[in-house]
Amino acid sequence: MKQKIVVVGSLHIDFVINVPHFPSPGETVVGSNFQVFPGGKGANQAYAAAKLGGSVSMVGQVGGDAQADWLKKNLASVGVDVSAVRRDPKNPSGTAGISIDPSGQNQILIMPGANGTFGPAQLKESKEILESAGIVLLQLEIPLETVEAAVHLANKAGAVVMLDPAPARDLPDSLLHLVDYLTPNENELAALTGAPPSAGIGREHAVQRARILIERGANKVIVKMGPHGALLVTKDQEHFWPVVSVEVVDTTAAGDAFNAAFAVALVAGKSEMQAGQFATAAGACSVTRQGAQPSMPTRNEVELMMKVSGHSAQSGF
Ligand code: RIB
Q1: Model pTM?
Q2: Which letter, b or e, does each residue of 97-122 get, where b requires 16 or more Cβ atoms within 10 Å of its Cβ?
Q3: Catalytic annotation on 236?
Q4: Ligand 1 atom nearest to 96, measured from its CA
């Protein structure tokens, strides 16, 4: 398997406020601790994978504003190749408004900006980078037709495709057929299978819903269940990765840490089982700190978390 991890996706400026509780419709809530972080599910996954030691290229688009350089510089600071991050001078960089409640849960609103104009024609400029990939990480914060075009290129190049269906939206079966790992959280799994959004649905329900996606063509589904761990469902197998309980500060980007760590472990030649343990531990590390990219762990931190979880034998790689 080729070592290169290519992330095709979004870059955002995250505007974060801590709130005592999430507002109801029409309610004004007084928040505190306003902070601005580099984010976006694509950029978070690229940043996390590089910080864990992966060789990573980011493919995407920032806007014509001054913050665009800051978003790219932050990725480059951990070694991400940002040569394929284009600029769309006619639009602002993507932004996210994030509120965090005292339990560390979040609510996120996004405004795509330049991510929304990153079409298949722009993606084509990065064809060679995609062809060099061992694994391609995707999410749904850029146009769906761009995601589809990237998946086709990745398939042609023989790369593993990991699609994070976030934010959830209807996906054609033709796309599901080309995805190796589909990685929803519980809410996204519910949305993808026509159920009302719900977290904490339990393993049995998660397996049933994941099987609906497998019947529609998805190869393997990994359900990210937050404090309850993660679940791998394939045509003929189920596996559960438990997670150690940690003090939660901010759950933002825990799913991004998971996908990045899974990819880093896979390209390093680890088994799916080991990759899942590593990824679950990375997700747990990330919730102990505030912010998206600032919360991403080092490999040492993940290995320490694995030891605490009793997986020391599988760490070091
Ligand atoms: O997954 C977390 C990310 O979702 C945030 O960084 C925010 O930008 C949104 O894209």
Answers
A1: 0.96
A2: ebbbbeebebebebebbbbbbbeeeb
A3: no
A4: 8
